[in-house]
């Protein structure tokens, strides 16, 4: 397994996943392009129809490259998928490249493709398809593998973005957001280490919590994320030590949500 994430000059993310399969390229090619095989491991219907790709729902994709039995590239919505098959000894090396705009969604995409390619390998081996694994735990593994530990510091402001594996309401409860009251200090999980918190100025359950500090406003926001979880966005005044503390806090939150499943 060789999985990594690149950021293109245009700002889009490029997820690359490689799998060595003990089968000839022609057999792998059939498994990644023929509907009767695809339906057993691919996450949607897929039929190649001339220069179009039909998914069974939503708009069609476009075929970008088609070179049997070596290369199949196509669009899916705003994303691009590229399946490349190379001979490797008595087997094949399959390289999947997924290009997309939401960098922090990469762990969710990787967890999904990891599960799909495991099913593809079983199909090729003529083994029973594996049962779906723990996608939430796999997601958290890929956060580390792909280097998605969040946070940046610019102009005295810490900004943190992190995909989580639970719903917004579940994250809100884990942060004790149901205890937040306008005019009172925020619940402790919303605090910034070493920074006294002022009164809550805005609290929308499952969405937003804002409060004041001597250095400026702190904002926590929960948005729709990639996959089944929510996206955490947090901004606060601070320096390098604050960034480190906020990163550690976000990872504790993610670990706690995983443990509570």
TrEMBL record:
<dbReference type="Pfam" id="PF08327">
    <property type="entry name" value="AHSA1"/>
</dbReference>
<comment type="similarity">
    <text>Belongs to the AHA1 family.</text>
</comment>
<protein>
    <submittedName>
        <fullName>SRPBCC family protein</fullName>
    </submittedName>
</protein>
<feature type="domain" description="Activator of Hsp90 ATPase homologue 1/2-like C-terminal">
    <location>
        <begin position="23"/>
        <end position="124"/>
    </location>
</feature>
<feature type="region of interest" description="Disordered">
    <location>
        <begin position="179"/>
        <end position="201"/>
    </location>
</feature>
<dbReference type="InterPro" id="IPR023393">
    <property type="entry name" value="START-like_dom_sf"/>
</dbReference>
<dbReference type="InterPro" id="IPR013538">
    <property type="entry name" value="ASHA1/2-like_C"/>
</dbReference>
